[in-house]
Amino acid sequence: MAKSIHDTTLLNNGVKMPWLGLGVWKTKEGEEVEQAVKAAIRSGYRSIDTAAAYKNETGVGKAIKESGIPREDIFITTKVWNADQGYDSTLKAFEESRKKLGVEYVDLYLIHWPVKGKYKDTWKALEKLYKDGLVRAIGVSNFQIHHLEDLLADCEVKPTVNQVEFHPYLTQEELLAFCQEQQIQLEAWSPLMQGHVVQDETIQALAQKYKKTPAQIVLRWDLQKGVVTIPKSVKEHRIVENAQIFDFELSPEDMEKIDRLNKNHRFGPDPDNFDF
């Protein structure tokens, strides 16, 4: 059980990944993303999650460099966008991301969405980047069980991570069980339901009980489910608050209360019906 912001999960290739990170989706390039990343690093975060599609890799790289924390102490995740999928185009896209981030290597490189007919060639490119030492770990994002089974059937390197929409209204129990069985670390994007957690009565009641915010309740639930979580915020006080989840534990009964909120409701696109 994660007891501090510096605690890590061990990926299936032996790489350590922090349980908590900062997500920078929809965070503007330049000042906004630079300040958010610096605030997170000051607060003890050591994992930053970006993507080519977020168009803020340059700011992320700049903030990490200016933070004064050694590069090897920061875990950087980025992702290849759908339009760049395919073998050669993925290698080219990676090089662009790497240059924008201003780093020699990336800690985790993910396929952003399972683009049909392309993600296997994209995966071969990721395997090459991994074997060449340009990435420390490779994984996927938004993959359902059937996509993972398809990839696992003939991949040379097993995905280390599957980053998906995961929150109390979309608990993805089968996918979580499948990933745990396969030793693929599940990671939650939009863990706070794009802000909707504050409106849920069950979560509000638990927040009062534990003297925590609704966001802290849900992020703690993620950790106790064994799910890496990357809440997004641009406000320093919120970034700090989101990290204050290591000094309490939800009881099994309260974990179940949150589990029961599942409605299979997505705030983001459905990986099986996404306009790629």
Jot down its keywords.
eight-stranded parallel sheet; TIM Barrel; two-stranded antiparallel ribbon; 276 residues
Short description:
The chain is α/β, with parallel strands linked by helices and 276 residues long.
Shape: globular
CATH topology: TIM Barrel
**CATH architecture classification:** Alpha-Beta Barrel
Q: What is the CATH superfamily classification?
A: NADP-dependent oxidoreductase domain
Look at the structure and give the mean pLDDT. 97
Number of domains: 1
Query: Which CATH class is shown?
Result: Alpha Beta
Give a short account of the largest sheet.
8 strands, parallel
Reading side by side through the largest sheet, how are the strands ordered?
3-4-5-6-7-8-9-10
- Backbone structural class: alpha/beta
The percentage helix is 25-40%
E-strand count: 10
| Beta-strand residue fraction | 15-25%
In angstroms, what separates the terminal alpha carbons? 37 Å
Stretches with pLDDT under 50, minimum 5 residues: none
**Count of helical segments?**
10
How does this structure look, described?
Belongs to the aldo/keto reductase family. Substrate binds at residue 112. InterPro entries: AKR, AKR5G, Aldo/ket_reductase_CS, NAD(P)_OxRdtase_dom_sf, NADP_OxRdtase_dom. Keywords: NADP, Oxidoreductase. It is a single chain. With 276 residues, the chain is α/β, with parallel strands linked by helices. The protein is 38% helix and 15% strand. The protein is built from ten helices and ten strands. The chain has an eight-stranded parallel sheet. It has a two-stranded antiparallel sheet with strand order 1-2. Helix 6 links the parallel strand 8 (161-165) and strand 9 (185-189). Helix 2 (57-67) crosses helix 3 and helix 7 (201-210) crosses helix 8 (214-224).
